[in-house]
């Protein structure tokens, strides 16, 4: 990560090779210039530098989604720095079009009308877009080639999965997200004739994941693995008011976090487990 980050700052190729050799061989040498203990930035206890370098390196190739998102903002007032950065970005896109058109005889019509949402969560990157499976495979192919050409990010295509939200659920931030079809029938009448109009609307659906939540409550000793409430034996020495306050705080936090879910049936079961566990702890 350090070498990949410094390649944007250092233009001398020989210096980069020397730095790569130094970092690779350093762990095998007992001493080189100074001892290992004196260099604190390479110790396992201090991970802030490596975390900063990793985030900086990831943000470099994630910047493409920012420009694709704001590509329709030409009529707005643009700062000088943002204008130069946008010109540099479109230069990269033109280069990518020339390379792919020359080698594979394709046209990047995909970038004409992007409709995407991107998020990175717990080391996983999620890219959502509307379209067919063929369109998503094109996104996958173009992004991998773009990152390899300009950012030296070698992604393995087999580690990138394409799932349709209409058939598969996405586990994200404690929710099970999917897209389901809602049908609505409207009866219209014109003079003596009447007819039905059926409209199908795609709705983004979020479900409370009952199995992971029950597993978390079982680890915390609020219930068993089957979801049957049990007494919280660790809290039996506390006063009744403290026990009620702790159970109430957990219940309120879960209610607030999952209040935006469209299906709350699983949430009601979690509340029931906590309520009965609180009663058995007070008994």
TrEMBL record:
<comment type="similarity">
    <text>Belongs to the intron maturase 2 family. MatK subfamily.</text>
</comment>
<feature type="domain" description="Domain X">
    <location>
        <begin position="202"/>
        <end position="283"/>
    </location>
</feature>
<dbReference type="Pfam" id="PF01824">
    <property type="entry name" value="MatK_N"/>
</dbReference>
<dbReference type="GO" id="GO:0008033">
    <property type="term" value="P:tRNA processing"/>
</dbReference>
<protein>
    <submittedName>
        <fullName>Maturase K</fullName>
    </submittedName>
</protein>
<dbReference type="InterPro" id="IPR024937">
    <property type="entry name" value="Domain_X"/>
</dbReference>
<keyword id="KW-0934">Plastid</keyword>
<dbReference type="GO" id="GO:0006397">
    <property type="term" value="P:mRNA processing"/>
</dbReference>
<feature type="domain" description="Maturase MatK N-terminal">
    <location>
        <begin position="1"/>
        <end position="174"/>
    </location>
</feature>
<dbReference type="InterPro" id="IPR024942">
    <property type="entry name" value="Maturase_MatK_N"/>
</dbReference>
<keyword id="KW-0507">mRNA processing</keyword>
<dbReference type="GO" id="GO:0003723">
    <property type="term" value="F:RNA binding"/>
</dbReference>
<keyword id="KW-0694">RNA-binding</keyword>
<dbReference type="InterPro" id="IPR002866">
    <property type="entry name" value="Maturase_MatK"/>
</dbReference>
<keyword id="KW-0150">Chloroplast</keyword>
<keyword id="KW-0819">tRNA processing</keyword>
<comment type="function">
    <text>Usually encoded in the trnK tRNA gene intron. Probably assists in splicing its own and other chloroplast group II introns.</text>
</comment>
<dbReference type="GO" id="GO:0009507">
    <property type="term" value="C:chloroplast"/>
</dbReference>
<dbReference type="Pfam" id="PF01348">
    <property type="entry name" value="Intron_maturas2"/>
</dbReference>
């Amino acid at each position: 990560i350090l070498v990949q980050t410094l390649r944007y700052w250092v233009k001398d190729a020989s210096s980069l090779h020397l730095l790569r050799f130094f970092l690779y061989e350093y762990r095998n040498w007992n001493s080189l210039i100074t001892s290992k203990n004196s260099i604190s930035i390479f110790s396992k206890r201090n991970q802030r530098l490596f975390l900063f370098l990793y985030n900086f390196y990831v943000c470099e190739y994630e910047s493409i989604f920012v420009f694709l998102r704001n590509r329709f903002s030409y009529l707005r007032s643009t700062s000088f720095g943002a204008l130069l950065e946008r010109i540099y970005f479109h230069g990269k896109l033109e280069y990518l079009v020339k390379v792919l058109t020359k080698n594979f005889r394709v046209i990047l019509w995909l970038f004409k009308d992007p409709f995407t949402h991107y998020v990175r969560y717990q080391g996983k990157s999620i890219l959502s877009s509307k379209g067919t499976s063929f369109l998503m495979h094109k996104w996958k192919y173009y992004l991998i080639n773009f990152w390899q050409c300009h950012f030296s990010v070698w992604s393995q295509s087999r580690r990138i999965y394409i799932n349709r939200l209409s058939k598969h659920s996405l586990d994200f931030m404690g929710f099970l997200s999917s897209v389901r079809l809602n049908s609505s029938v409207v009866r219209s009448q014109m003079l003596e004739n009447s007819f039905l109009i059926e409209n199908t609307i795609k709705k983004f659906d979020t479900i409370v994941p009952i199995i992971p939540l029950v597993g978390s409550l079982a680890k915390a000793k609020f219930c068993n693995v089957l979801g049957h409430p049990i007494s919280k034996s660790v809290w039996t020495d506390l006063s009744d008011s403290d026990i009620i306050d702790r159970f109430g705080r957990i219940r309120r936090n879960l209610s607030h976090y999952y209040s935006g879910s469209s299906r709350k049936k699983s949430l009601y079961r979690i509340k029931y487990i906590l309520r009965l566990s609180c009663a058995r702890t007070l008994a």
